[in-house]
Amino acid sequence: MSYNCGHGKNPEIKPAYVVNVLRALRQYESELDEFLREQQ
């Protein structure tokens, strides 16, 4: 599977970047949920 951000010389997003974003989202999931609840 490949990801394409649609700009730049090489628009393909490397899978390692996706993995890092997912890891960060999982690590801070409770803090992000709390923040988003406060914004409503």
Report on the structure:
With 40 residues, the protein is mainly α. Helix content is 60%, strand content 10%. It has one domain (12-39). The chain has a two-stranded antiparallel ribbon with strand order 1-2. The protein starts with a strand and ends with a helix.
Outline the secondary-structure elements.
Layout: E1 3-4, E2 12-13, H1 15-27, H2 29-39
Antiparallel strand pairs: 1-2
Largest sheet: 2 strands, antiparallel
**Secondary-structure element string:** EEHH
What helical percentage do the residues reach? 55-70%
Q: Residue-averaged pLDDT, rounded?
A: 87
Overall structural domain count: 1
Query: Regions with pLDDT < 50 over 5+ consecutive residues?
Result: none
Assembly state (oligomeric): single chain
Distance between the termini: 35 Å
Which percent band covers the strand fraction?
5-15%
How many alpha or pi helices? 2
Rg of Cα set = 14 Å
Derived structural class: mainly alpha
Shape: elongated
| Major sheet: arrangement of strands | 1-2
Number of E strands: 2
